[in-house]
Amino acid sequence: MSTPVLQTHELVCRFGGFVATDHVNLCVQAGARHALIGPNGAGKTTLINLLTGYLTPTEGRVTLLGEDVSAMAQWARCRRGLVRTFQINQLFGDMTVLESVALSAAERQGLGGRWWKPLAARGEALDEAAAILQRLGLLADAYELTRNLAYGRQRLIEIALALAQRPKVLLLDEPAAGVPTSESRELFEVIAQLPREVTILLIEHDMDLVFRFAERISVLVSGALLLEDTPEVIANHPRVREVYLGE
Ligand code: ADP
Fold first, then answer.
1. pTM of the entire structure?
2. How far is the CA of 119 from the centre of ligand 1 (A)?
3. What is the best residue among 46, 202, 221 to mutate for testing ligand 1's pocket, by most ligand atoms within 8 Å of CB?
4. How far is the CA of 14 from the centre of ligand 1 (A)?
5. Strand 169-173 to 82-84 pairing
6. Which residues have C-beta atoms less than 6 Å from ligand 1?
7. Which GO terms describe its molecular function (predicted)?
8. Which residue is closest in CA terms to ligand 1's atom 6?
9. Which residues contact 11 (CB under 8 A, 6 or more apart)?
10. φ, ψ of residue 62 in degrees (nearest 5)
11. For each of the chain's 247 residues, which pLDDT tens digit applies?
């Protein structure tokens, strides 16, 4: 039996008189490889911001593992396992890859800025970081400064930072944006191999990547969910073809 891990219930977000999210009922099942697609301005970013707590809904609820998190701060949702990737360049460019990921693990362990003490905890964070880097094929880059890596590798480190938060649900917001095609393939091969304990909700513009990765796809149009189904059904749906291909 499938279990929903992340759900929205009649979620609405208005900016003044404009409805950016229109009674959305999104349901992401445990272990899913679920993608959210929609043309520009469909409301994907707004929906992600409502899920993570960056925005507060005008109406409706968000539940994580059955718990109502609608009024919860971003960090509290993160502690409960809802983790999104974030732009690395602003934060960790002058640290090595290993340090960056260890800092994320230390932060989760509650050590925060005092991550260098106690020493045992620092060792634990470093060990955890090394294990994550190994899983993502990044161990060879452990002692590189993150800003010196190719862009595709940097985007992988964003995923490593998120994994160090031990996510139950990982929100990947355009992980391949700005990444050259050859590197984005590699990126998605790594993402596809993440363990099933981590449920993934992906937002991605590149339909080729979406259709190769996702098992369920939700289509958002003008703030409302048009449909949710398998990639095969979505690809052949007349309304989706109309929205995407102008047919
Ligand atoms: P997408 O990510 O699918 O491109 P967005 O969620 O960014 O779509 O935007 C959906 C709609 O909401 C757009 O028309 C956008 O202009 C509008 N919008 C987004 N954020 C705000 C805001 N803070 N204030 C007013 N309108 C906004």
1. 0.91
2. 45
3. 46
4. 10
5. parallel
6. 15, 18, 20, 38, 40-46
7. ATP binding; ATP hydrolysis activity
8. 43
9. 21, 23, 24, 25, 26, 47, 50, 57, 59, 60, 61, 62
10. -120, 130
11. 578 999 999 999 999 999 999 999 999 999 999 999 999 899 999 999 999 999 999 999 999 999 999 999 999 999 999 999 865 555 566 889 999 999 888 888 775 555 555 666 678 889 999 999 999 999 999 999 988 888 888 889 999 999 999 999 999 998 888 888 888 888 899 999 999 999 999 998 888 889 999 999 999 999 999 999 999 999 999 988 888 766 6
197 C-alpha vs ligand 1 centroid, how far in Å?
Answer: 32
Position 213: which residue type?
F
- Ligand 1 closest atom vs CA 16: 25
**216 C-alpha to ligand 1 centroid (Å):** 24
Question: Count of H helices and E strands in the chain?
Answer: 10, 11
Q: Where are the domains of the chain?
A: 1-81+167-247, 96-166
Q: Which fold has domain 1-81+167-247?
A: Rossmann fold (3.40.50)
- Nearest protein Cα to ligand 1, atom 20: 46
CA of 167 to the centre of ligand 1 (A): 27
- 3-class DSSP state for residue 229? strand
Look up residue 54 and give its two tokens. Answer: 């960056």
What's the 19 CA to ligand 1 centre distance in angstroms?
9
Q: Where are the alpha helices (DSSP H) in 41-164?
A: 44-52, 74-79, 89-92, 97-108, 119-135, 151-163
